[in-house]
Amino acid sequence: MLTTVYIIAITAEAMSGALSAGRRQMDMFGVVLIAFITALGGGTVRDVLLGNFPVNWTQHPPYIYLTMLAGLLTVLLARYMHHLQQVFLVLDALGLIAFTIIGCNVALELDYGLPVVVMSGVITGIFGGILRDILCNQTPQVLQKELYASVSILVAALYLILVHFNVSHDLTLLAAFSS
Amino acid sequence: MLTTVYIIAITAEAMSGALSAGRRQMDMFGVVLIAFITALGGGTVRDVLLGNFPVNWTQHPPYIYLTMLAGLLTVLLARYMHHLQQVFLVLDALGLIAFTIIGCNVALELDYGLPVVVMSGVITGIFGGILRDILCNQTPQVLQKELYASVSILVAALYLILVHFNVSHDLTLLAAFSS
Amino acid sequence: MLTTVYIIAITAEAMSGALSAGRRQMDMFGVVLIAFITALGGGTVRDVLLGNFPVNWTQHPPYIYLTMLAGLLTVLLARYMHHLQQVFLVLDALGLIAFTIIGCNVALELDYGLPVVVMSGVITGIFGGILRDILCNQTPQVLQKELYASVSILVAALYLILVHFNVSHDLTLLAAFSS
Questions:
Q1: Residues of B in contact with A119 (CB under 8 A)
Q2: Contacts across the B-C interface (CB distance below 8 Å)
Q3: What ipTM score was computed for the predicted complex, to two decimals?
């Protein structure tokens, strides 16, 4: 189930990246690169910081194609995308939760300490957006809007509590998603 | 002694990061993240570039808490901080020197060549501030004001000369600090 | 032959970085650092992403000195550099091609999959310029001007086709350069 949500999440993130890049008059290549970095940049920063090589996406070509294609399609259909803002908000929230849980899991499996596990979750959740904003020469939005980061931290905390009490994996994920 | 100075240094750097973030209307999370990155980002960039995993702060939770707490307190007390500018300048200089020496040491112990050792010191000294400025969407100050980087390079050079002549470790540190 | 072109390429990239930094009123240290990062940053990002430690330039001090010196000389001679714009364009194109081929090679030798090999080539080709623009607080040019990235992608594709058909190494390079 987490994989399904992850795939929806990176698609949504890629589209948000492409919209951002489109607004900055970037060309096709810029749009595709920023879509890719917005979607997979958080996980990349996490893997590099934790020394978790090979970096995840290098072993999953479909994720590379998916995010680039999603970015490309988004720009082509940009004028219709504005009607979908509500959908985007929901996908974005789902994505943030999925990224955070995955990030916590990666650090847990590498036996990092608890604060690093939480930070790994938050970094996976928010750094794609931070890299997108840096490349678009903007102050990162996540640093100026409380909600986004708070959700990620809460999800990480909740997830770790559930893991600690040995709740079964699927139930844990369910709880995290209904939070 | 170097550890003591290091702890003072990351605290001072975290406060400088928080003040910078506060000026950019960031929320609490943004302030805490930028405090953390300003204080520990230089060492992180160094560890990643040198392939020195696990990255230092992931093994030292107290450093994580300390820098985040320092950032938080700084924003709460921001209006009183302006009276302490002189103190900050001294702490900042101390921090730069401590970071540079630590950075040189890390590269020396990994058997890197001399130019890489010097660059490791300088990177540790200045990259926290560079990352802070990038996240605040400013041109990095250290690239526009001679003094800061020059001090770091001088400290690295002086330190290496002393190490080369087998001066005892404590004496070396003392000399570096009185430079 | 690739080494010769590589040395010309990093020199040209260092000069382009220094000119960019000079325009932003940076001091000597800023110019030298940005020259270094523009020239060797693409390869550094590639090595870190692929977990290819030690990072290439840390094992080649002459590359460090060369790029820094080129940056320094460029600023001192900045007023005469404007007459050389045509030369720069040619060197820049040569550099892009050399960086792309080298980046593909590194990923091939580490047994990464084909899409990662192409991305490794493109990242090596363009990330030096992206880092330069981020440090100069500009929106990365390569994301706004089609040509540059397209050339890099085409070179990577052409190179891989030639490698696939077992064309001898020197001939492959020759073909890539005459593209």
A1: 64
A2: 61
A3: 0.90
